[in-house]
Amino acid sequence: MAIVGHFSDLSELRKLVISEMVPGVIQQTFEEGQLLAMLPGVRLNSRSLIYNREDVLPSAAWYDIHQQISFTADVTLVQKEVWLKRVIRQDLLDRFVMQTYNNPNDYRTEILKSLTRGVMRTVEDTLIYGSGSTEATTEFDGLDKLITIADGDAFTSATNLQAFDMGGASAPLTFRALRQLVNAVRPRASILLMTRTMRDTLAAVAWEKGINLSGANPMARINSSLNEFGKMVDFFDGIPIVISDYLLQENDNTGGKDDGNDSGMSSIYAIRFGSIADGGLSLVVGGATGG
Q1: pLDDT at residue 184 above 60?
Q2: Which of 198, 241, 245 has its CA nearest to residue 223?
Q3: Are 226 and 233 in contact, with CB atoms under 8 Å apart?
Q4: So where are the chain's domains?
């Protein structure tokens, strides 16, 4: 038996002291690639927003002097409508506990912090994999649905101007396809959004294995630089590479999350942020508080 002095045993001594608790809840899950902080906001005081896209552009013809000039009517537009959606989580708060449980953690504060984080994570996931193109649906369309994908997409009008299909899990990404992706977003993409695995693979090709371009002109280059916070950021052809922990492995030719997250395939998105009138990607929020 331990001799602790004065007290008959150690358990008696422990009655006089308590353990010290670190305030708050220690974060264990860290996720990168949040788009909310990057998206410009558009305030809406209505249930939906309607905008028109170019479809068939006007053209002209050459005429000689005194030649009859004909009237033309060939311009068409594509009208789009997006609706405000609500993301909500409701938990019970015990009034008695709120008034008494505040040492060392404030009960209400900790719950609100947890709720806020849960809502934000849900929104971030929906920004990529959300599905809801009509007013009746509860979600909005994420990147996975805004850009339709199919087998054989090749950045052409015959298949899909905005997507390229590498050909399944056995077909690796090529620098040519990545350069074509950059060219497809005009005038210039703001970021390249990809998985951590894809970013690490590109970095390994550039810095560890090296790229043998003898006898060929490089189409683009990968480099790194420090941002304003001192964090190393990779660039492809001068466009920042943003890794997203919300991007997962996906289904072949149909997109969407792969149930087992082991398909070996994932997407890379070239995104241009900006106002809707400028053709950029933005976030529409309701009212002065976004609620």
Answers
A1: yes
A2: 241
A3: yes
A4: 32-52+78-210+220-290
